[in-house]
Amino acid sequence: MQLVPVSTLEAAPATLHTQGWALLTADTLLPWIGADAATAELLHASWNQLPPDPHLRDGGHYRYRRHDSYVLDVASGTLERMPHRAHWQPVIYNALHGGFERWFEPVAPVVAEHPVWQALIRQLGQLLARTKPVDRWFIEAHQFRVDTTGGIGRPTPEGAHRDGVDFVAVLMLERHLIKGGETRVFEADGPRGVRFTLNEPWSTLLLDDERVIHESTPIQPLGEHGWRDTLVLTFRQGGFQGPTSA
Hints:
The protein has helices spanning 12-19, 26-32, 37-44, 109-112, 115-128; strands at 21-24, 63-73, 78-81, 136-147, 167-176, 178-180, 183-187, 193-196, 203-208, 212-216, 219-221, 227-236. The chain is an alpha+beta fold and 246 residues long. The protein has a single domain (12-245), classed as q2cbj1_9rhob like domain (Jelly Rolls).
């Protein structure tokens, strides 16, 4: 397994610019968003109430999720939660689940209105605007639980991919009695890549979606029931993805 260097908040924009990805530790992230471990774990408890993903096209029943959308005014830091909307991706970015509207249950109000949740989205958006200056980010938030009830779970059933946005943030929240789930990040137009496993709760991988492709390998149980909890945030300029934006 590769030894993966971590970044500071100050260095993250330059690191994203030079290599297309950056990794933040929980010790870096949590104080920055005004959270301690206990507060973060209270927020993570909401992952126990995620409904099943009704749109899996591989026949599996291993994924649970909720979805929200936000608009961030970068200069003022104003974060607006948008009316609930479908998640949509073009087939070019998601051959398995692209090309149709996917409706998921919204993020619970107790989560969406939590100051740590809002600080996380707002401050990551402002940090990413230091790499690519924009006035506004159109942000989608995805709470994921992938479990091993059927013997195997697939965090990225679509395989190695881009998301059709500007930046992606992948936050590891918990690995419970599993093996696998290796993260792989590769240049979209080159041979170089890295492979590592996100283990630490609230460790955060930032990706320049225009420059790298990413995937996570399947997970298998180490006990009777295992799961992998993540939060994925996508940041896009110009508007949300939809059939008219393809």
